[in-house]
Request: fold
Amino acid sequence: MGPSHKPREIRLSTTPTPEALAELKLGDIVYLDGLVYTAREGVYMRVLDDGADLPIDLPDLSMANFHCSPAANIREDGSHDLGAVTATASFRFAKWLPRWIEQAGARLIIGKGGMSSKDYKDYFVPHGAVYLSTVGYGTGALLGRGVQEVHSVHWNKELGMAQAMWVIRAHHMGPFIVASDQTGECLFERENAKISANLEKVYEGTRPAVLKRLGETDDRSDEMIG
Amino acid sequence: MIPLDAIEATANTLMAKAAIEIPDDYLAGLRAAADSEDGDLSSFVLHAMLENYAAAKEDGRAMCGDTGTPRWYVKMGNECRIEGGPVALEAALRRATAQATADVPLRPNRVHPLWRTDHDNNVGIGAPEIEYGFEPEGEWIDLITVHKGGLFGTDYRMLFPSDGIEGIKRFYLDSLVAFGKRGLACQPAIIGIGLGGAKDACMVLGKRAACLRTVGNRNSDPRIAELEEELKELGNSIGMGAMGFVGKNMVIDCNIEVGYCHTGGMQMSVHAFCLSSRRAVARIHADGRVEYRTDPDWFTPYQRRETVEWDLPTSRAKSA
Reply:
């Protein structure tokens, strides 16, 4: 580990050009401007499995899909009170993402923990899509500051507030970290590989449990998502 | 007699405090981590978190968008009496949880496990959890709210005496490495370890070790205190930091709590209280006075007692 240096900071539109996406390098810090929508299992099931029409015009309005449920309230008069915003772990949505990127034209998938490089190569790279990770995890107050207004909320009655589609207007919203690139490289896998090299030494002087579990492995370089 | 309206008003305030203000002990621990971190990305993340705590406090907004699953720990002095009794107390805590969910606002996280029904207020079957403890004397009631987040970082394993300390270290490292990858555990965290009891008691001990002790606090058994230090260092030697990036800060502190278990076993649980270690505490006195603090002070000598009887005069000396 060398001396700390500040990562590169980039401002990006939520309807980015293919050129702007191609510019992004692993570890870059991104701040977003434009409309961002939340969609997770509730929205995916409704649109992709049940065939419901998209409630907003995608990807014209936004190409940025945030895996998020905000800490927010819809007041009785219909106005919104939005506080903190942070991501939920994205690997659980791999089942729906290929079709979502295709149908909704998403080019920025924003969430926690990223996907595997296989996911990136299979269905991110062919569409020029990039994964942005939130930072922390839990810079919810900073991200909340970047929300200029709640544009609209869809399906909150049907799905509950946490699973509803929140469309928010971002202004210098961030920080996010670029976690995949146009070759399908994965920032987290790169870091895991570096850390794995040291693990043998850390485990010295420990002993495997006398009672095993089915499927147990001692290969600590294994990825846990998939 | 503790007035009921004081309980509800205090509970409302605690809900907001827990969501918005990072406790001082955790903040000091994270500052020390940020100072020592030399992994580029990890260091960036820790400094962003410090900025985030300041922003949350300044704006009065929740520090993290996932505001966890609010729960209550209630402790009462032996002479404490509550207006309306325990049922009124539980109703007040449920009302405060629902009210604060709308007011702060918090994320309405709680849903039915099968039907995914969301009341949009963090209240439902078994939610919020309300757990109780007692102390030998006093007319006060302590309300502690913990909004532990996350779906990752917690595990349980039945170990046996022959697994020994080497087995404990192995399961500890396995848990940190597995859940630390990609930062799923939202580390650096306060790691709580439960040892012994039975499966359920072991999980409770570990969770309380993570959530109801402060950073820098040590177990009263000097040999356990030593193991806490050793495991903290071991966790920070993995080479993994915030978000699973290369770094040297995985564990802000490691707390261990034990309970007597079956002679053949050595149950172990691991819990991670995340970068948003949300807890807030208040003591309400019989005259309605309220004192806020961030240290739950849960694990008193009485909570860790080993004897059949608890001698009141002795307790007076010990808890003074």
